[in-house]
Design a protein that fits this description.
Elements lengths: L2 H6 L2 H11 L3 H20 L5 H17 L10 H15 L22 H4 L7 H13 L2 H12 L4 H8 L3 H30 L1
């Protein structure tokens, strides 16, 4: 099993999932506690209407409980929940307070924890801020893919299913994001090197 899948699959998740599917309310409650914050963090990057987002998360869990006998077993609970939330947000977009239309031009806000995720050895706020600016300059889908791949540890198959894209499209968008990020990264490193010398 790859490291990506190890980050995606926690041993207790699939066991809890199966208990929940069998009607165990304690397992269901535990899953909600484990994933509500993670789902909110992901959903907030798509829609910044907090009340709407909380409703979507609640609806996802309510629907899961109501359909528990029809839901299949899964080793990747996080992926399953991300996909369910993303579908719910897009399906319920007419209820957004701001009345925005959500399509391919939706805003995906990235607030990576730069210090722990990308530059653990560099403890400078200026460089972290500049890197975050580079990430946020990427097109929305590229930002979302970068978030799902590197922050949430999802693999190409999971990302393609969550975002309803082909695996090749995910790969192509990620390569474009890499290319953009690398060119900006070289500029940042050059500027940073001159600044600290």
């Amino acid at each position: 099993m790859s490291n990506d899948n190890n980050r995606l699959i926690r041993p207790d998740d699939s066991a809890l999932w199966d208990l929940f599917r069998a009607g165990d309310e304690a397992a269901y409650t535990q899953l909600m506690k484990m994933y509500s914050k993670t789902l909110f963090n992901y959903g907030f990057r798509i829609c910044q209407d907090k009340d709407f987002l909380k409703d979507c998360i609640q609806d996802v869990f309510l629907e899961l409980w109501n359909r528990r006998l029809k839901i299949s077993s899964t080793p990747a609970v996080k992926y399953y929940l991300f996909k369910a939330l993303r579908l719910r947000i897009f399906r319920e977009q007419a209820k957004w307070n701001r009345g925005e239309q959500l399509d391919d031009n939706y805003e995906f806000v990235v607030e990576f924890n730069i210090e722990t995720k990308m530059i653990a050895d560099l403890e400078t706020i200026e460089l972290s801020t500049r890197i975050q600016q580079v990430l946020n300059a990427l097109p929305n889908r590229q930002r979302e893919i970068m978030y799902l791949r590197f922050y949430e540890g999802l693999d190409f198959d999971n990302i393609s299913q969550i975002m309803d894209l082909s695996k090749q499209s995910v790969h192509n968008l990620l390569q474009k994001a890499y290319k953009s990020f690398r060119s900006e990264w070289l500029i940042l490193i050059t500027l940073f090197s001159k600044h600290i010398i």
